[in-house]
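Severity: low
Component: inverse-folding endpoint
Summary: output formatting inconsistent between runs
Steps to reproduce: submit the following structure tokens with default settings.
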């Protein structure tokens, strides 16, 4: 099977050209070819009408092509200036770094972008949005004429997204051409000029975004009508699965109390830094609470570590699946069975046959696209990686599932599949706590909604009474109300 098959793509100076498609459609392969990371096996690439070879990233950079990956390629311990000129540091003479000139030149680029970033600041001390600006500055220091941005807003706050879009518009006026990859369809209409859709490694169509609506875009992407993007199915809730009483972990959590029942999806909303992930880590035993009580199926428990939580059938799908949910250099099979080795072992010996049977079952059930069980999970698309993480916890027979940003960085078709899986889990009696920054997702898939603000639960709503406006009101700390 070809990763790309007879794909065409055209980019004009001063435009934002969106590259759209489901996970596995060929977007990453195309931009890796354009950035010199992968070699093409057929076809040609023309830059300003001249055929070029892009066999290495250095060749692409020399021709003015730079890429900013979703996982930022920065060294946290170094300054912004050192990252911008890494490997190309100005020198006073051979082997002697011209530190002052490096700082001066880096600051000039950062000031040109109006980032407000000090070139001497360490990258680890910057916000994610500021780090993104450092990546853009690095690209411009290479005199980039073509800038490829892969999911640039996936970890940014709303304010940082506004700042990024302002910067992109400014780059357009300077004639920089931008290839923009994102699964957030709303923002494409705000920042994009044209869109090219890929599906199964093939070119489908190119349209001006002003001439095509969202529903048609989705049909072109997935070759089917997805209908309701949030196909929530409400089921009869059962007995209490989890109860949290006055849990605190200072300074990030304060006096948290709520309950979660079998068959129920409780959405946990809040701004970045509100304490949502910190709460999830306490419930999974990754962090210890200072005070308060946790009850699982009516039993008071002490979760000293994640192994205790897994033993109690609690699962945590972290928002950073690559560093905390997967072992990227292990195959799909091993990742699926990683938390369930006791199921497949006897007297210290693991049954490879039983592992393979279980992994194959989950690959089929969740429709994970992989050429074989032994494929390293790093080579799967984001949506399929997420399905592998979910399979790992289903294989562990977890009954309380904490989903932290379950659809971040995956396409609209894979999102619907994740939602359908959440419905099925709830129908089977699992209790689900779903953390999400996407308010439409929270509203569309939750039975109840908790809103966190500054480490506390500020409000609780039923699905019927919740709106984006009242969730935001409490998330911003403008009000508080009693919750159950």
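Observed output (run 2 of 3):
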């Amino acid at each position: 099977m070809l990763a790309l098959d007879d794909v065409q793509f055209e980019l004009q100076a001063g435009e934002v050209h969106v590259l759209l498609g489901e996970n596995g459609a060929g977007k990453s392969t195309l931009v890796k070819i354009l950035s010199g990371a992968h070699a093409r096996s057929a076809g040609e690439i023309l830059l300003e009408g001249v055929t070029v070879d892009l066999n290495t990233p250095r060749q692409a950079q020399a021709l003015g092509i730079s890429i900013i990956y979703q996982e930022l390629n920065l060294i946290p311990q170094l300054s912004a200036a050192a990252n911008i000129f890494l490997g190309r540091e100005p020198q006073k003479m051979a082997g002697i770094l011209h530190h002052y000139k490096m700082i001066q030149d880096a600051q000039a680029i950062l000031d040109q972008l109006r980032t407000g970033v000090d070139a001497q600041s360490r990258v680890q001390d910057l916000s994610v949005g500021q780090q993104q600006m450092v990546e853009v500055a690095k690209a411009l220091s290479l005199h980039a004429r073509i800038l490829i941005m892969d999911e640039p807003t996936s970890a940014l706050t709303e304010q940082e997204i506004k700042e990024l879009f302002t910067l992109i518009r400014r780059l357009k006026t300077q004639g920089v051409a931008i290839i923009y990859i994102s699964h957030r369809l709303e923002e494409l209409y705000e920042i994009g000029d044209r869109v090219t859709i890929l599906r199964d490694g093939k070119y489908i169509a190119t349209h001006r975004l002003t001439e095509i609506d969202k529903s048609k875009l989705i049909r072109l992407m997935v070759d089917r009508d997805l209908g309701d993007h949030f196909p929530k199915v409400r089921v009869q809730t059962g007995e209490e699965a989890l109860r949290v009483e006055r849990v605190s972990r200072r300074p990030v959590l304060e006096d948290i109390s709520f309950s979660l029942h079998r068959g129920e999806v409780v959405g946990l909303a809040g701004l970045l830094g509100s304490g949502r992930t910190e709460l999830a880590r306490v419930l999974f035993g990754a962090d210890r609470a200072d005070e308060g009580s946790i009850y699982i199926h009516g039993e008071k428990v002490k979760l000293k570590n994640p192994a205790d939580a897994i033993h109690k059938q609690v699962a945590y799908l972290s928002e950073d699946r690559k560093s905390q949910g997967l072992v990227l250099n292990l195959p799909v099979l091993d990742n699926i069975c990683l938390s369930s080795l006791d199921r497949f072992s006897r007297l210290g010996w693991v049954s490879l046959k039983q592992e393979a049977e279980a992994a194959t079952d989950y690959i089929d059930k969740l429709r994970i696209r992989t050429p074989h069980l032994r494929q390293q999970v790093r080579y799967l698309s984001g949506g399929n990686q997420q399905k592998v993480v979910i399979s790992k916890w289903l294989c562990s027979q977890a009954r309380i599932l904490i989903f932290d940003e379950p659809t971040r960085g995956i396409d609209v078709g894979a999102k619907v599949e994740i939602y359908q899986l959440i419905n099925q889990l709830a129908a089977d009696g699992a209790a689900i706590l779903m953390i999400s920054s996407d308010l439409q997702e929270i509203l569309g898939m939750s039975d109840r909604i908790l809103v966190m603000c500054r480490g506390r639960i500020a409000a609780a709503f039923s699905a019927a009474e919740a709106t984006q406006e009242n969730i935001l009101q409490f998330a911003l700390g403008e009000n508080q109300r009693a919750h159950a």
